[in-house]
Amino acid sequence: MEEFHKVRRLPPYVFEQVNRLKGSARAAGADIIDLGMGNPDLPTPKAIVDKLCEVVQDPRTHRYSSSKGIPGLRRAQAAYYARRFGVKLNPETQVVATLGSKEGFANMAQAITAPGDVILCPNPTYPIHAFGFLMAGGVIRSMNVEPDESFFGPLERAVRHSIPKPLALIINYPSNPTAHVASLDFYKDVIDFARKHEIIVLSDLAYSEIYFDENNPPPSVLQVPGAMDVAVEFTSMSKTFSMPGWRMGFAVGNERLIAALTRVKSYLDYGAFTPIQVAATHALNGDGSDIAEVRNVYRRRRDVMVESFGKAGFEVPPPAATMFAWAKIPEKFRHLGSLEFSKLLVEKADVAVAPGVGFGEMGDDYVRLALVENEHRIRQAARNIKKFLSTADETMHNVISLNTRR
């Protein structure tokens, strides 16, 4: 039977192949150390859980909620932006709550995209950045991911050679998967470019609070004068407060774009469960100590991974931010591509990672390592990988023989 049109436009979900292999290995008794999915293992802070438990006792909160977010939650998000970035937002017209930043991106794509619209999207990048627009009928033009002067040459060429002219530019810093961090000067150049060419800027700032240089916290694109004319920014509570399953995020910025997203959402959902929204409000209005502790845990894990994997012969550049490391596949295995290398790690080292090609074809020389196992498990993963790499010649001989027989 022929696939439906929108499903047909989506490429195969490569992560599923690694997940199946991981599941089979676990079913056979293997102890798989999972550094693949970016699923935070840290518990949601007790004060946030307690607030949820308190509010859920009130049966009035069990009714339909507000799609755009309850007023107190939108005010709390506006207050967070004022404290953290010095950005003033109108909670009535410039803030909408989303069911995580992923849903926000997907529904923004539905709100603004006409069939054939060109979207400038980083590659590699978080899959929804491209797939949300593909499902909405858009056309993706891949862009460089480095937030420096090399970003703008390809951007200029994309604008000159795209018909129709690009509708929107997606930026994602701190980046998932590459962990690149952008400067405020870079954002100024992006906004100048977008205003000059009348292009919408959609910024994914989901990892704004997971950074490791205390003197240089990641900025918001909305700090740039004039950004409100063209930009919307998406944030999430999933990583900041270890609330991934709660599905709580936000879109903030340009009033026209926020109004479009709000209208589309009003047809699709009634918002998150009210007790979740109240608990999220409580979290945003907190003193920040919970965020600092989460950041410290990821910093310690990062340092352990960089050191132990390096000693094992697998160089991992220390990420400046996010809960991920973006590492080049060891040279001997690079020709296999990231999917086959990731499968080998599950089969031969009991370690699961995310293949870079799942974030775009330009990521195929890399794998993404998530800091979602404790320090002991990360060291064990390094020992397993060291043993695997020590048998690399034998492994490669077997792989080549298998491929020849095929």
From TrEMBL:
Domain Aminotransferase class I/classII large residue range list: 31-383
SUPFAM superfamilies xrefs: PLP-dependent transferases (SSF53383)
A Pfam family the protein falls into: Aminotran_1_2
One of the record's GO molecular function terms: transaminase activity
Catalytic activity, EC: 2.6.1.-
Keywords assigned by UniProt, alphabetized: Aminotransferase, Transferase
Enzyme class: transferase
Similarity remark: Belongs to the class-I pyridoxal-phosphate-dependent aminotransferase family.
InterPro entries: Aminotransferase_I/II_large, LL-DAP_aminotransferase, NHTrfase_class1_PyrdxlP-BS, PyrdxlP-dep_Trfase, PyrdxlP-dep_Trfase_major, PyrdxlP-dep_Trfase_small
Cofactor dependency: pyridoxal 5'-phosphate
Protein name per the record: Aminotransferase
